[in-house]
Design brief:
Elements (H helix, E strand, L loop, with lengths): L4 H20 L5 H15 L19 H12 L19 H12 L19 H10 L10 H11 L1 H4 L19 H12 L20 H11 L5
Helix pairs in contact: 2-4, 3-4, 6-9
Bound molecules: heme C (HEC) (2 copies).
Length: 228
């Protein structure tokens, strides 16, 4: 074998091993995800739309990585969540279940408005219409200066949470657009009180502590318009 082909062979071998590992990666079982969701629905709603105006957060459409990370944090008791404690211990939530419920929830799309239809048209299905209406989630505009909030958001938050506020799966960054404003406020306080860690890569950075109450209010006001 000519000497020059050895590195090539190594590359090919490494590639073969990697692709094999890829082929063995587990595919999410969405039926199992749907079944697990029956438990979650009691608080987070049947479509992951959240409940009680943000006492329970929206989960639908959250980036997959973020959902997995948070469930692991709950399971390891690194993020406190008394309400969920009994649902996330090792027995109830082994890794494959976390992957399945995360894959199920991330794929749910919640429309922000209900399409107009003619209720008198033949074939109108009132039950289906009611189900559709339950999925609609439009965050009411929160108080604050949207112009100032937009500038701050774009400069300070968009690099991670996305210009459109939809989050970023690769980085495990949650959506902020379409999330209940009071839920976001509660989490802001958890970060500034160091109950949660905002940036796992820089755990000592008090990322949100640098902003005044008014600045945060303006940012969240802007965020509340992103799903309009
Ligand atoms: C008894 C009510 C309850 C049930 C059941 C429940 N949760 Fe929760 N969940 C909560 C509460 C309350 C919070 C918010 C905690 C906080 O404020 O930090 C939460 C937060 C979360 C979060 C963090 C979301 C975010 O944006 O920060 C995820 C992810 C989550 N729940 C997933 C699930 C899944 C998956 C299930 C089903 C296996 C489930 N929950 C069942 C009450 C519940
Ligand atoms: C360096 C990247 C980065 C920047 C910049 C950033 N965030 Fe985050 N943010 C994250 C990550 C990662 C999480 C999830 C962390 C965790 O709790 O595990 C998060 C979570 C949050 C949450 C909790 C949402 C939920 O559903 O639990 C809020 C609220 C939030 N960020 C607000 C902001 C605001 C407002 C700004 C701008 C002032 C901002 N973030 C800037 C990375 C960032």
């Amino acid at each position: 074998m000519p000497r020059t082909s050895v590195p090539r062979l190594i590359v090919l071998l490494a590639f073969a091993v990697l692709t094999q590992a890829g082929a063995h990666a587990r595919e999410a079982d969405l039926d199992n995800g749907e079944e697990i969701n029956e438990v979650c629905a009691g608080c987070h709603g049947g479509f992951g739309e959240g409940g009680k105006q943000g006492q329970y957060p929206r989960l639908a459409g959250q980036p997959y990585r973020f959902l997995v990370d948070q469930l692991v944090l709950f399971r390891e008791r690194k993020r406190p969540n008394l309400a969920m404690v009994e649902y996330v211990d090792d027995r109830q939530m082994p890794d494959p279940d976390i992957q399945d419920i995360a894959a199920y929830l991330t794929a749910i799309d919640l429309p922000t408005r209900l399409e107009a239809v003619d209720e008198n048209a033949p074939g109108f299905d009132a039950f289906a219409r009611l189900q559709e209406a339950k999925r609609v989630l439009q965050i009411p505009r929160a108080e604050g200066d949207i112009g100032i909030g937009e500038k701050l958001y774009r400069r300070e938050c968009a690099s991670c949470h996305g210009r459109d506020g939809r989050g970023d799966s690769a980085g495990g960054v949650p959506l902020l657009a379409g999330q209940y404003t009071n839920y976001l406020w509660r989490q802001v306080r958890k970060y500034t009180d160091k109950v949660r860690i905002h940036d796992p890569d820089a755990p000592d950075d008090n990322l949100l502590g640098a902003f005044s109450h008014d600045e945060l209010r303006d940012i969240l006001a802007y965020v509340s318009t992103l799903d309009d």
